[in-house]
Amino acid sequence: MLFDVGRLLHEEFLAVYRAAAADADGWEHAAETVAHRVGARLVAAKIPVAQVVVALRSTDRLLTETMLDDGGDARALAAAGTALAAELMSVFCADDDGLADALLAGDTPDGAAPFYTVVSVRGAVADRAVNAFRRHGPVLLAASGHLLLPVAEAVALPLCGDVREELGGEVWFCLAERPAARVPLARKEVDEIDALVASLGRSPGVYRIDDMLFESAVTRTPEVRDELGKVVAPLLANPVLVETVLALLEADGNRAEAVKKLFIHRSTIDYRLDQIEHLTGLSPVNPRDLAVLGTAIAMSRTNSLG
For the structural domain made of 100-210, what CATH number should be given? Predict the structure, then answer.
């Protein structure tokens, strides 16, 4: 049987959008039931997931616009679209149980995509993140909590940004892309980026290795690590100065912003910065020196120094 996916979704989802727009009792359960039934039909018909994703977006836009014109609540309609998409995509991913773990273990089972972007999630429950991603397309969840997106990093990067906004709050995503056979290397890179981001107290956001190239290079060079450890040892012994460096890093080197974060006077931070330079020979007002200091702090917190 041939499917007009867009028409099918429109016909099946219309009642759910109407119920959500009217804030009718039980629309959430109806959304789950309808989406699961429709998803099963599409899977049985072997409809490509890419085609379903396109139809989902189009259907959501059309039904939302229609219900808004009739006075429907925008947030309720957004919730309905999210619930329907998440449940529908979960049906497509049901046959992929164990695929993520197999890929992370270095296997390439039948059905694997040519490449994946591995994503680590911090600050949000993995299941919530999965549901948010499924509104946009397929995603695999590994037992380790890593997410695998069958898309290129260039596509995953803005997608992670959109999902982070949807989740709200303080959420960090770290990501890396590799061919299916090299997914374990992507996971290793992602975990390294996440450790550095956490150790440096970087603000919530989406991070790639390109954002941490200097820090990553230093941590991988034993001779540089040893020398850096000697230089910054006096700094690491002073928590107040460490806090000052981290605040300056978070403010991208802007002293005025760092002062606000630390709740101190401008003259106080100037004094502290002079202390740091005196102890280490590195000037926190110099972007490269500040990066070196931040890297040293990150390595000390991940037990990479010494």
Answer: 3.30.70
